[in-house]
Every structure is written in C-alpha cells, then in structure tokens.
User: Fold these one by one.
Assistant:
Number 1:
Amino acid sequence: GNVILDSSEPPPERPYGYGRELGDTSPADYPGLRKDAGYFFGYQFFIVGLLYVLPEEISAWTDEQKEEYTVNKWWDNVTHPRWDPDEWYINYILHPYWGMTYYTRGRERGLSETGAFWYSFTLSSIYEFGLEALFEPVSIQDMIFTPGLGSLLGWYFEDTRREIKSQSSYSFWDQTVLVLTDPLGTLNTIVDGWIETDSELELRSFYRSPSFGIYDDRDWNSPYRQRIDPLVNDYLGLQLTVHWQ
C-alpha cells in the first residue's frame, strides 16, 4: 500500500537526484514545475552569455559569428524547421536521453505519465526554440524523438529509481543512477541550496523595437535626448529574478 509519511519528523537525508518520496500521493507540484522550467531556461542563456564573453580560443565563437546573431536570424531559425542532418547518435541517443530526464523531472514533481510526457515536450520546445535556435534551425526529429523516445526511457527507468529509493542505504552506483536520470533536479537542488530553499523565481521575456524621434539641433544637448534618439537594433531580452528569504 501507500507509504504514509509522518510530517512531524524531518525526512531522512537523501542523495542528489532522489526527488519525490516513495508513496507520496500529494498533488502535482506546479510551482516546482514552473521553477524547474525557469531554471532550465535560465541555464541556457547563462551558457550563451558565458560563451559570448569567453575568448575565441575557448568558445570557438568568432567576433564575426557573434555579430551575426540577431533577432532576425533567430526568427528565421524558429520559422523554418528542418530535418536535422546531425549524426544519428545525437538525434536518436543523446536527445532522447535528455527527453528522459525531462520526463523524470515531471514525474518527480507528481505529474501523471501523460503529464510528464507533455512536460518533456515543453522543455524540449524551450531548448529547440531557445538556445539551439540561436545557432541552427529547429529540428523536426528532435521535436518528435526527444519527448517521444525520452518518455519511453523515463518510464522504463522508473522501476529502477523506485528500487533504489526503497533501499536504506545507497551505493555509489545507486547515487550515480539517480543523478544521471534526473540531472536537472540535481542541479536545481544545488542552486536552491545556494539561494536558500525558500525561494521563488520569476521569468519574463520582452522585445524592444527601434524608436525614432524627431528633433532638431536645439535638442542635441537636451537631457531627454536619449528618449528620442534612435535606439539600437531590435533585440530580445530576458529578465530572470530570484527572490529568497
């Protein structure tokens, strides 16, 4: 039967990647799911920002390539999906692996199998239309096989995770399996530890178009000139705000 957890006692220390307690029948943790998705989105832009400031010798990203990445290029990539020419192991092993981890994250937040599939589809879409679309067009087979095969893999490994969780102690191999099947949950747990566990995350995107004003020479030294001068080219913005106590 279901395990009844005594909320008056603190839960025992769990290894990274443990996730939801066995027998936990509480409703799905939708705030946690939103936070996981927000972290996932933020990690991608952190990586892009890091690559942007690193020297070419490390990032393999030339100044000319950096200048090419505009909103128009991103929009062209997301509106012209293609059949991805990547190597087979990338499309049919690596991407489904990540789809499995998204599915597992959904299940560990209390989603049903169907709900976890759609959560995997959502995170796959965030990746395809976010980070990857800065570099190449959206991949048709990634949108199909990442959540599709990934969810099947996640479903298969659920029994393995349950068996490990039911143990009273965890070997190095057990802990490795938990982390590899839920790396996003593991990383989010670490980040939560940095900013306190009682935290909230807000994620907001915005778009700014050029704004042109009309002014003459008398306005050149006006302190309000920056409000009427042409702004920089169109750009996308991302505001990531974390509140903690």
Number 2:
Amino acid sequence: MRRAAGRAVRADGQVRCWGGCSVEAKLSKDEVANTVAEKLAAQTGQPKPDVTCPEDLVGKVGTSLRCKRSASDGTSLGVTVRVTSVDGNAIKYDIKADETVS
C-alpha cells in the first residue's frame, strides 16, 4: 500500500451564504473528510481512503484540524488540515499526512 506520508496538498473549500449573513466561514467535517480523501487518492493513485474529521473546519488562517485516515488493514494515519487563507466564503487549506502509522 502506498501512503501519502509527509506530503502536503492544497485544497479549496467554498462556503456559501445567501442574503445578509455575517457568520464565520466554515466547512463541515464531512466535506473536509471527503476532500482530504479525494486529494490523498489522487496523490497516491490508490482508491479513496476512509477519512474522518472530528469537527467542522473554521475559516480562520492558522486554524488546524486533525483528521484520521483508516486503512483496510486496520492501521490509521493522522492527517493535519491547516487553513492557509480565507477570502470571503472561500477557505484554502493544506493537507499533510503523518509520516508514520498509528
């Protein structure tokens, strides 16, 4: 099995708000997990892994979130998602997989 160990990828998230809202931009934990899984699969050439994130990602530069990628052999790999920029409703973030499995 190939791993995306230690590699960082960039992802863009869009948060939409219609009307006059003044809420803080954020992405749901499911949307973040799905994007992380897609990016890891594209990077490794492997099927999309099972990724879970514990909470929504708040659109504030520097905010990070620890997600978990589970493999079919029972091992798991931590993945750090860190917000790099926020432009209106667009949240950009880096994804970095841990180098060792847990």
